[in-house]
């Protein structure tokens, strides 16, 4: 049961840096059911998972606690394993869940195909775009986008700046 609770906490905090791990959103509950194999697409569908999530959560709440999660699993296990008794089905579902972690399958990766690398290489930039990045390719932020004024009193391209006091 401790393994199931650890898995619950891992999925509860997935994608939300502010989450404490004590309660899980419907999105994360659905993700957990899908990745752990509870949702098989035939006996248990995403619609079934959403209906059971809304049935067990408190009225007006957006999340479920671990106790509500256990109640949801009791309802899902009967649908998932129809030929087993309720207790055997629950243990089978917990067996699917134990030790799992949220995966990052299907997330968007940075592509390196074709001209993308050439277009994003800051060392090849020219003109005003070259001013926006330092030597390492890191952006300068506001300093790279604005024309910073030189309040020294000299014209911008004047080569003898600062020499007036020496000659007079």
Strand content: under 5%
**Overall pLDDT, averaged?**
81
DSSP strand tally: 2
Portion in helices: 40-55%
Total of helices: 8
* Span of the ends, CA to CA: 88 Å
**Spatial strand sequence of the major β-sheet:** 1-2
Radius of gyration: 29 Å
How does the helix and strand content classify structurally? mainly alpha
Reported for the largest beta sheet, the result is: 2 strands, antiparallel
Regions with little confidence, pLDDT below 50 for 5+ residues:
none
Q: Choose one word for the global shape.
A: elongated
Taken in chain order, the helices and strands follow as HEHHEHHHHH
Any chance you could write out the topology, listing elements then pairs?
Elements (H helix, E strand, L loop, with lengths): L1 H12 L9 E3 H11 L9 H11 L6 E3 H15 L5 H12 L18 H5 L21 H4 L18 H4 L1
Antiparallel strand pairs: 1-2
Provide an overview of this structure.
- This protein has 168 residues and is mainly α.
- It has eight helices and two strands, in the order αβααβααααα.
- The chain has helices at residues 2-13, 26-36, 46-56, 66-80, 86-97, 116-120, 142-145, 164-167; strands at residues 23-25, 63-65.
- Helix 2 (26-36) crosses helix 3.
- It is elongated.
- The model has no long low-confidence stretch (mean pLDDT 81).
């Amino acid at each position: 049961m401790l393994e199931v609770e650890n898995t619950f906490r891992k999925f509860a905090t997935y994608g939300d840096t502010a989450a404490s791990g004590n309660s899980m959103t419907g999105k994360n509950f659905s993700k957990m059911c899908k990745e752990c194999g509870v949702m098989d697409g035939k006996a248990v569908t995403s619609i079934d998972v959403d209906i059971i999530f809304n049935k067990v959560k408190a009225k007006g709440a957006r999340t479920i606690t671990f106790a509500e999660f256990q109640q949801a699993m009791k309802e899902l296990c009967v649908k998932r394993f129809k030929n087993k008794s309720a207790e055997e089905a629950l243990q089978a579902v917990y067996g699917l869940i134990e030790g799992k972690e949220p995966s990052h399958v299907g997330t968007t990766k940075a592509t390196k195909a074709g001209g993308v690398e050439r277009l994003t290489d800051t060392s090849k930039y020219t003109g005003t775009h070259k001013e926006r990045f330092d030597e390492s390719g890191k952006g300068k932020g506001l300093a790279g986008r604005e024309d910073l004024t030189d309040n020294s009193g000299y014209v911008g391209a004047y080569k003898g700046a600062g020499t007036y006091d020496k000659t007079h």
